[in-house]
Amino acid sequence: MADLQPDMPRTTEVGELDGLPDAPFPEQPGQPEPHTPAGVLLDQARALLAAHPVADGYSGLPWALRHLPRYDLELGEAAIDTDMPRMREGHVGALFWSLHPPEGPGGDRATVGTLEQLDHVRSVIESHPEGLRLVRTAGQVIDARNCGRISVVLGPAHATALDDSLGVLRILRALGLRVLTLTGTAWAGERGLTRFGEEVVREMNRLGVLADVSGAPAATAERVFTLSKTPVLCSRSAARALRPHPANLPDELLAALGAARGLCMVPLIAEQTGPTVQDVADHLDHVRDVAGPQSVGLSGTYDSGAVHPRDLADASRYPHLIAELLRRGWSEADLALLTWGNVQRVLRSADFAARAAQHRRDTSPTRITELDAL
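The line above is the sequence of Peptidase M19; the predicted structure tokens follow.
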């Protein structure tokens, strides 16, 4: 257990801190005037986040904690990027906890590995009942926030965890899984979805499991956009037009995602977005312009082993990003969608579609061997 230090050591980032000064708290966090001092913008950002906290689309915290002999998230841990003091300082209201093993989606133990991570996640949450709450629905996210708890949404997990079985998908959903990344399988590849892959997406819709197509081939992503009756996530994707990373989305896919009311969650990873907070803001501007303000979100990717841009080293630093967006003229309405509203919309939509589908569609008995590949 580590003591929380007054000046918490920061984990890996590019460059140095910005040293934005503190300033008197503004009466209203409205549109900034031209040349608004940096400290005033930062206070406006904090005020806005107090009303519209961050729903972080990807956290590697569960795996990071497995390598610590002891920890106390409530007290604070210098060895990680995400603990309760940092999340409170950064106004984080919800986290999607990744069940991805760091060595990648493959391997012979993908199902067992995912179940072990689910077991570990439950243990972490039970050890911090005053700070964390496991949630399964959009309504429970709101309840947790009203109780002063940070919501933990389970996922994304790799599709390899299904072991080509819809039964395993149903079990994982029963254990709380909400997001599945559709990569690394024979039924979701360069040629798109096979007939079994399409059946997986339909069953995900029936169960309320969101499809994540970050890193998926374009043909798979396009088919999922068309087939899914619920919004599709890109849990760790920025704009390829600004940075040619393979996980980033070209404009045609961003436009298609926006038309399907999906959500592109821009990662705070220097390799994908660039080394500064301004670079991240450029990607957010671009995604908003191409896909629309209803289709852009945030993905901290903290504790995932990634190098983060300058000024965004850990979960406490979200106000600095929001201050930069305020400087660029983002409205409070668009910022509220970015931080909180879009994730809530996607979860609510999936919950509603699942209830409707369960009245129309029985549990699918389909096996992969019963359907032909494309």
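Note on the example: Residues 42-361 form a domain with the TIM Barrel fold (CATH 3.20.20.140). Confidence is low (pLDDT under 50) at residues 1-30.
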